[in-house]
Each structure stands twice: as structure tokens, then as C-alpha cells.
Amino acid sequence: MDYLKSLNEPQYEGVVNTDGPTMIIAGAGSGKTRVLTYRIAYLMEKKGVDPFNILSLTFTNKAAKEMRDRIEKVVGTDARNLWMGTFHSVFARILRSEADRLGYPSNFTIYDADDAKQLIKSIVKEMNLDDKVYKPNVVLNRISGAKNRLISWREYIKNPIYRADDESNMKPELGRIYKTYSERCFKAGAMDFDDLLFNTNVLFKEHLDVLNKYQQRFHYVMVDEFQDTNISQYLITKKLSAVRQNICVVGDDAQSIYAFRGADIQNILNFEKDYPDLRVIKLEQNYRSTKNIVNAANSIISRNRAQLKKDVWTANDSGTLIELLRATSDNEEGKLVASSIFEEKMQNHLKNSDFAILYRTNSQSRAMEEALRRMNIKYKIVGGLSFYQRKEIKDLMAYLRYSINHNDEQSLRRIINYPKRGIGDSSLDKIIVAANENNIGLWDVLTNISSYMPGRVANAVMDFVTLIKRFKIDIEKKDAFEAANLIAKGSGILKTLYEDKTVEGLSRYENVQELLNAVKEFVDDPDKEDKSLGSFLQEIALITGVDNDKDDDDDKVTMMTIHMAKGLEFKNVYIVGMEEDLFPSQMMLSSRADLEEERRLFYVAITRAEHKLYLSYALSRYRFGRLKNCEPSRFIDEIDPSFIKVSKRHSKVESRPSSEGNGDFAKSFVSGIKRTTSSQPLTRKSNYKAPVDFKPSDTSTLKTGMKVEHPKFGFGKVVEMDESGANRKATVNFDDFGEKTLLLSFAKLRIH
Ligand code: ATP
Ligand code: MG
């Protein structure tokens, strides 16, 4: 019972009080995940609960695996029978066994974001709508938002409140697209990610016997990272635990960073209302980080108005101060970070895997990568373009998917003419139209092709059908690995790639082999109950960015976005690109709520560090193809200055004391930077004062070359207009402040 001794008092309470509703709201690094892990071990070991009756929902599948490994150390291999994973993977599994209730085949396909966007694209085209107005990304986001709030297409079309936003944004056809999209997915026997949750809700609402079955099955339900669940997820957990009420959720409101995907902090507040007997446990001792890091994080988050009160403290050492690194450019920033890692490794005998580089957006990885490569420091990027998103992998996967589910429209699109067999786009479109008009499946059209299409193409289709039928038999008769191998060969994919003798061709060939290796590993894995190809495909479809980390054990520096880093910890952390408009992101400056979400994101980033934290920024950076001057992030100024110091590597830029007479340390070099980094005299010291009667003009006629006035930045000239996106932007070169890009929807500009 050693593990119980490694808990403090409130953690112990959280572990042993297993019955009734419990909510643990606690600061970063205070042991929330640890409590959940040991609670499950305790349930099994001490209370004799069958692992089949325990459901634990985590943020990534990797987190679930780590939890399971820890539990296994306490209770043995029985831990493998626990129900654990992300919401999506657990409920995909349940949907697979109950699919017929919803009219779906049990081998339904899971569409990833790319499949979904392609389908929307073709629907927009078929409807003759403008694809600049109905951009696949935007449409998918709106549909996803509706599904996550459990609004079906029928309700969306019926209720003007749901449509209002889209109608005022000149997208009146969204409802029709939503409807067609849903019908097409259904007909294709496919669900997108949001459907996995949406349909689980439908299943539990409309089939009470099914709900009852799972209520009886799951005696204990647990949710980690509860602050990032959406309404759809909340309702699922609530329903599942409605009978026994043994539900335990853990989370930290200060780390809620997925509002843009529909996560709702209200879930924490509602929880108290929904469960009047709720046991609330607070954990306030941080075990992860030094005092400096914990206190710096507290000083940041205390600026947010919307938060539950917590006093996070630590008994750990003070540690070293947070170091600030300034670079002249993004490339130099990469070099500074790489050489700092190199030196830290040498001096403190650290491994590559003790380091993480965190950034706001994926594109920032490039400069870092180059610098690390030059210094021969091994790294891995978590959550970039994943292995499974590569074309050759998606092509083979499409063959596998299609051989299992003959109505999967997106897979058919990929493979019907790859490798080339003379069935062009227009023939495929005809096939899809025929299926829709006759209200039959795609396969019904294909197997009956001569009634729909003339000779030459029809012959090619018949050959294709024969091929797919053969693959289906292979899948039924052979194990998943043999079947996948036969399909890779039989489809002609291996041959086509092999014949392409370029370097890229070779690497694509190797990637396909690597996918076959993955199937082999899956087949050989004793933990896998269902070794069918269908089950392999489902697992792959549900891999998230963090899970996709193929080389787990290697000693590499980890690079990832802050969103991906949730729940993780590293000895040394570098948060790079600490610049205005980048972090906080320009897109998040329009409301207090958005800015507070960015600040929580910064809080998450800081609290990943155990021993040492670096913040770096560049004075200039290429963004959207242009070199821009950058200003240090306001978040640097927000850290209490007693926890931060300037690094000795700090790029030597001529500096001077703050012109504002403000003793604040970070600010004093903010002003120094500005004067020296541009051909313009960039200084915050400006003689400009906005007139009291300042009135912004209507900027709809704004053009390049116009002279404007801004209440803070004074006079300037418009050097560029960006009319392309949903948000109109103007880049203005201000006399005293240099270039700034402003969102015209809320920048106050007077045209002169
Ligand atoms: P996050 O908010 O980042 O998800 P968390 O609250 O889930 O953090 P854990 O990851 O569970 O925190 O714990 C943080 C670190 O502190 C881990 O390394 C964990 O092993 C350690 N830890 C937690 N509780 C204790 C304890 N009582 N004694 C020693 N170490 C502990
Ligand atoms: Mg955690």
C-alpha cells in the first residue's frame, strides 16, 4: 500500500472517498492526475471493483496509457481491462457495438478533419455556392460548433436563433450544407469526430435500454482535465453516472484553453448545481515546480477576473529565476535557444528529453528546428503534420477503409482512380449523383454500373469492383497484417511508389512499409482484444496529436504548441515567440474573455516547467511572408519582476532606461528595443497626444497610401491592406511607433 503513503492529506481524501459525486478543482502540478490514477488503483485493489466497471476519460490516449501503466504497477495486468481513453475513443468503441440502433453499420468509417473538409468542398460545389464565402474550414467549424452544442441540422434549420449568426455573416445556406453533409455522412456509413459525441448523446437519449446497460456497466466514472469538456461530453458523463452517482471529475479552471472548440467552463459551475451532495476537494500544494515558477505563474493568473480562488504554493526550492532571452530575429532566437539547451545539458548533465520548446502556433517550429539541427541536438515535433496525414498513408488507408465499408464516399474519391485506371472525376461525380438520386449506396451503383454508364468506364469500374471484393475476402479470411499486405500489393500502390525512383518516392514507399509494420505491431500486441483490421483503423482514426508521437523512448527535445502540452511536465521549458500579436495572438485581442483565455494558455505553458523556465522573443520575424518588427509580449510585463531576470545571452541591443519613468523591469527594455530595431525611430516616447474630441472614421473606404491617426499610436500612413480574410486588416507605418497591423473591425482610426 505504498502508493497511499505518497499522498498528502487532501489527495488521500480524493483517493479513498470513492463513492458519491466528487470534484477536485486544483492548481497546476498539484497531483490531480495522480489522485485519479491512485483512486482507480484503490478501487481495484482495496474495494475489489472489477476493472470492466471503471471508466476513466483522459485528454489524450497517451495520458490514458501512462495512467494504465502506473495502475498496472499496483494491481497487475488486470489494469488492462479498465475502460480508459479519450471521450472520442471510448465512445467510438461503444458506438461500434450499438451502431445498428442508429442505422449505422458497425464498421462505420471515421472521417478526419481532412475528409470532412473535402466532403464539404464537394457539397459547396454541387450546390453552386461561392467557395470564398463558404470556405470548407469555416463551414466545418460552424457545423462542429452546432454539433457540440447538440444542435442537429433539423433544429438548426427550424430555429432562427441558431441561424442568426450565420445569416448576419452572409451565410444563409449553412443549414442546407449542414443537412446535406449529415445525410452524406450517414449514407457513406461515416461519422466525423463531433458525430462520435453527438451520436452517443442521441443513442443515450433515444434508446434508454442502451443507456441503462452502460449505466449498469460503469460503476465508477472519472474525468481528467474536466475544465476542457464541452456540453456534449458533460451530458454523456452525467447520464452515465446518473444511477450510481459515482462520478469524480478533476480539473483546473485556470487551465481552460479550449473554449474555441466549445469547451465550457460553465461545466465546473454547473457541476455544483447538478450534484447538491458534491464533495469538493481543493489541492493547493504544487509538487512539480520551483517556488519561482509557481509564484510567477500565480502572478500572471491573478490578473484574470474570471477564476475560482486558489492559493497554489510549493515546498520545493526557490530555484533559479526565469530567464528572458531577446533575439534580433526569429532565426537568432532559434540559435539562442539551441545554444542555451546545449550549455544546460553540459553543465547540469541533462538529457535532450528533459527539454521542451513550446510555442503558440505550429509554424514557429521552423527556425527552432534549423538551429537544433545545426547543433546536432535531436528533437521531435509533436502534433505537426502527422504520419497518418501523409498522402501515401491516407491512400493505402483509404483502400483498407473502403474494402471494409463500401459506402465510404471520401475513401472512394481517393482510390477509384489511384493508381490510374481511367475513371475520371466526372465519372465519379456521376456515380455519386446516381447514388443520391436513387437513394441507394455507392456500392449499389458500382456493382450495377452498366445501367448508369457507357462501356469503357464501366469496364474499368467492374475491374475495380472485382478488386475490392477480393480485398474484402482477404480481410475476412486473413489476419489484419496479411490482409493489409495483400491490399498494399494488390491495389498497385506499392508498385507505383517503387517505380518512382526519386528520393521522395523512396521515402513514400518506406512510409507505406512503416504503416504495415504498425499493423503488425497491432496484431502482435497482447493487450488488443479485437485484432481486426476494422479495429486497427478505428484506433488510427482516433490518434490525437500527442498520441502520434511515434518515438516515445528516444532522447529528444520535445517541440509542440502549448495546447498540446496540457498535463505534461519537463525539467526545462522554453516558451518562445513571446511577442505581441503572436502571444497573445492577434486573433484573441478583441474581448476580455479571449485575452483571459490567452493568459490561461500562458499559465499552462509556465506550469509545465519543473526546474527552469526561459522566455524568448525576437525583435523581427517573418510572418505571412513579410519581415515584421515585433514588440515583446505584454505577458512578460505581467510577471512579477522579482521572479525574472535577463539572460546573459540576451542579444545586445543598445538600451536605455525607461523613458516612462516606470521602474518596471521588462518595460525598461521594451523601450530600448524599439528605438534600435527599425529604420524608424521606434520609441514609446512620443509627443503625440490624442485630441479629446477624437472621433474614429468609417474605414470602409480605407486604402494604401492614406494618412491616418490612431488615439494611441498617433499619425501614420497605410502601407498595406489585407482584404482577404473575414477580418479586414490594415498595416500602418506610424511616425513614432513603426509598422502595426490593425484589425479594422475594432481599431479606432481617423482618416486625414
Ligand atoms: P496538471 O494541472 O498540469 O495536469 P496535475 O495536477 O495533474 O497537473 P500531476 O501531474 O498529477 O499534477 O502531478 C504533478 C507532479 O507532482 C508529478 O510529477 C507527480 O508525480 C508529483 N506529485 C504529485 N503529488 C505528489 C506527492 N504527494 N508527493 C510527491 N510528488 C507528487
Ligand atoms: Mg494532470
TrEMBL record:
Transmembrane segments: none annotated. Its EC number is 5.6.2.4. It comes from the Bacteria. GO terms for biological process: recombinational repair. Residues 5-290 form the UvrD-like helicase ATP-binding domain. InterPro entries: DExx_box_DNA_helicase_dom_sf, DNA_helicase_UvrD-like_C, DNA_helicase_UvrD/REP, P-loop_NTPase, UvrD-like_ATP-bd. GO terms for cellular component: cytosol; DNA helicase complex. SUPFAM superfamilies: P-loop containing nucleoside triphosphate hydrolases. GO terms for molecular function: 3'-5' DNA helicase activity; ATP binding; DNA binding; hydrolase activity. ATP binds at residues 26-33. The keyword Nucleotide-binding applies. It is an enzyme of class 5 (isomerase). Keywords: ATP-binding, DNA-binding, Helicase, Hydrolase, Isomerase, Nucleotide-binding. It catalyses: Couples ATP hydrolysis with the unwinding of duplex DNA by translocating in the 3'-5' direction; ATP + H2O = ADP + phosphate + H(+). PROSITE patterns: UVRD_HELICASE_ATP_BIND, UVRD_HELICASE_CTER. Residues 291-567 form the UvrD-like helicase C-terminal domain. Belongs to the helicase family. UvrD subfamily. This is DNA 3'-5' helicase. It comes from Fulvivirga sediminis.
